[in-house]
Design goal:
By secondary structure, this protein is of the alpha/beta class. It has one domain: Maf protein (Alpha-Beta Complex). Helix content is 36%, strand content 22%. Strands 1, 2, 3, 4, 5, 6 and 7 form a seven-stranded mixed sheet that branches. α3 packs across α4.
Length: 220
């Protein structure tokens, strides 16, 4: 079964590649509309499911992976900032405090034969006390503008974080253990994916090495 990642996020692509997943990418056109009547956990699940469902509608088979990440502080959703001023305001509100990062993972069977699977991972993150200089310097890196909560822990944002409780990959944007658990429901074993890829690479290398001097000639 083909796995399709419904995301434009380069971070999610990198994380899936890290665990050997074989997948295609198709960016979802689902609109991210916040419904204030829903809890943060309900909202992030809805957004992930909408992304996956929108892409699944373009296919007759395959398994679509949708994901959405939000930052929650005082039960308030912090999305991606629209301006640098909004980014600075978010960072001030997080300074010296704990907040929660929630990432929802949705798997949708494009054939419609199985019900969608949705799950949420939660990680606690504590920022160190940030000065105005810290905030201005971080915003100047440009990292804030495409990140929920106005920071990315995998970049310069690591300098803002004092400690975390829970899954680090969840804060980056894709809780890998949670993804693997969902894929197992469809009989997809990521270890098997990785082994299959290694066999293909090995076979390709052997083939190239026996074809004249292509990739296999003596170095001396």
């Amino acid at each position: 079964m083909t796995l399709i990642l419904a995301s434009a996020s380069p971070r999610r692509r990198e994380l899936l590649r890290q665990i050997g997943a074989d997948f295609e990418v198709e960016v979802s056109n689902a609109q991210e509309i916040i419904d204030d009547s829903l809890s943060p956990e309900e909202m992030v699940q809805r957004l992930a499911l909408q992304k996956a469902t929108a892409v699944a509608g373009n296919h007759t088979d395959g398994l679509v992976l949708g994901s959405d990440t939000v930052v929650v502080s005082d039960q308030r959703l912090l999305g991606k900032p629209a301006t640098e001023e909004e980014a600075a305001e978010m960072l001030r509100s997080l300074s010296g405090r704990w907040h929660q990062v929630m990432t929802a993972v949705a798997l949708v069977d494009a054939s419609g034969e199985r019900e969608p699977w949705v799950s949420v991972e939660k990680t606690g993150v504590k920022f160190r006390n940030l000065s105005e200089e810290d905030i201005a310097a971080y915003i100047a890196t440009g990292e804030s503008m495409d990140k929920a909560g106005s920071y990315g822990i995998q970049g310069y944002g690591a300098l803002l974080v004092e400690k975390i409780e829970g899954c680090y990959f969840n804060v980056v944007g894709l809780p890998l253990q949670r993804v693997a658990a969902g894929l197992r429901n469809w009989g997809m074993n990521l270890y098997a994916y990785s082994n299959l890829q290694n066999e293909r690479i090995s076979a390709a290398g052997t083939s190239a090495g026996t074809d004249g001097n292509a990739g296999g000639g003596s170095a001396f």
